[in-house]
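Board notes (copied after class):
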Amino acid sequence: MTATDPALTALAQGWCALSLLHGRIESHIERALQSRHDLSVREYSLLDVLSRQHAGEGGHLQMKQVADAVVLSQSATTRLVTRLEDRGLLERYLCPTDRRGIYTDVTEAGLTLLEEARPTNDTALREALDEAAKNPDLALLVRVVETLKAPVPA
């Protein structure tokens, strides 16, 4: 295979299209969340992920799991948690069974803000996908995104 191999060129073009779609969606949602709720996409994602925790077995996420879920490094996730904690939207506490573990929960204020922001996020996502679908280079990717379902945990 060479750098000009048609398969590699097609792969690179596909990656560029996916990156373009992601960037357009994220920036559209970012503007909507910032202007209406003073939240970034990453902050919204973190609140959303943490709001899905539960008290049962394996129901609370460790910081590495949270970082993976919001697609950030552990250090960036920790800084993000600290920012939201400073705003009163999150709270940290020691794991009751392992004093070395620290968990993070969404506060009532955080849950309220998340519920207020969810329709904004969903509407902005729909708008961004509808706009991207008008671009022939992105239309197929939009259709794929619209048919994806979240994986069911094993």
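Comment from the instructor: The first helix runs from residue 6 to 37. DSSP finds six helices and two strands in the chain.
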